[in-house]
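Section 3.1: Structural characterization of target chains.
Under the original work plan, the team committed to producing a structural model for every single-chain target entering the pipeline before any wet-lab resources were allocated. The record below documents one such target. The sequence was received from the expression subgroup and is listed exactly as submitted; it comprises 494 residues.
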Amino acid sequence: MATWRQRIGAAIAGVPERKESATSAVVVATGNWSPRWFGTDYTSLATQGYGRNPYVFACVRQISMALAGIQWSVYSDKTKKTKFEDHPLASLLERPNPREGRTKFMENLVGYLMLDGNVFIERVGPDNGPPKELYVLRPDRVQIVVGNALNPVAGYVYAIGNSKVNFPSERLRHLKFFNPLDDWRGLSPMQAALMSVNQNNASKAWNVALLQNGAKPPGALKVEGALDDDQYQRVKNMIDADYSGVMNAGRPLLLEGGMDWQEMGMSPLDMAWLEGQKLSAREIAIVYNVAPELIGDSSNKTYSNFKEARAALYTETVLPLSDWIRDEMNAWLTPLFGDKVFIDYEKDDIEALAEDQNAVWDRADKAFTSGWITINDARKLAGQPEDKEKGDQYVWEAKASSAPDPSLGLKGDIVEGSTGPAGLLTDGSTPGKGAGDSQGSGSANENDTGNTDSTAGPPSGPPQRGGGEAKATIIPFAYGRSQSLADEKVSSVG
């Protein structure tokens, strides 16, 4: 008996169909084997991705709201010695425009980046002076006007329907993700996750339609007897029109006399339906570099607890994105304010990283006061600016006459009569050496003056003092910490 494929081929070729036994069965297979993807334009990505997929929505919200909650400040330069509280640029960052504050502005900026891979920032104000307002523009409405070799971007056109606004290139700042195939526009993360988003959306729509119709999945029709060409085409057209596609999934099939339904498609159980849902959700989380447990997928946990996952979101995704935005703002905005200023975000104020930062400070403090690293090594470890004057000194090389500079982030209490920096005792001696015993001998006594050689080496053990009792203080290096040992009495070692 000829199959339905042979029947179609014969009909196309014009070969008359040879009828076989009257009891021969005709099978009409159903199904659409070509996947249908939604478009890669901004509207499709925003509608099908952010608007209809819970995992895309959750990922974009996690990243945008985390970055929006970070405080930004204006400093005198990269060393961040002086912070400008009332600088016009600080006010602009805190209130970019009359309709938005800093949080909403940053949420929109990051949201457009995560969906489209592009974002455009407009500055409003004098051509060569400080801007008065900043606005985030929808990326799908901005067209890039290509220039020449010396000026690749001649300008921008903002279009809504028939209304268009032209911008010179310097009035907008274009932030875009890397795109290997486009010189002008960035690649959307949604495009990388396109198949996973389609699979997740289609599986949910198919499942919902199946449940609403309460019928079995598509299969095949088995017909007793032969169908002529008109009957065959009528049945085929009916199946294509009324029973194919996601929206028709599970619709009850009306059978005529002599027809029988034979299930041929795999059941949701056979297709590991639930596992497919989890896999697509995990792939979306991977594209956005968000831990699955942060978007409600506890089955694919990558961290032992929520706190670790939250901290990883900042260190692996939010902070690198913040670094990029900071550099772009410093290159575009700060030169317009004339004086040399520097925009940076307050990493130390991020609550999710507070515990990690304390651990870093502890390591830096111990390494410095133990004599293993220099002041600048410790400051770099803790993410603080360098001390250009005395940053190359080890703890035993620091001079007792120089007190720590509070503007460098060194905090600690200095006892009365002492100006010693971190790791120095109040009388100017180093840990392991007495006031009159540069060798730190254990046999020192009150009358022992010892050698007064000012050259000292790294401490070989805990602080020791010869010559009775003395008050001491150690000023830890780490920013924001105070561990004064003032009034601690160090007994002489006999």
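The two ends are 110 Å apart (CA to CA).
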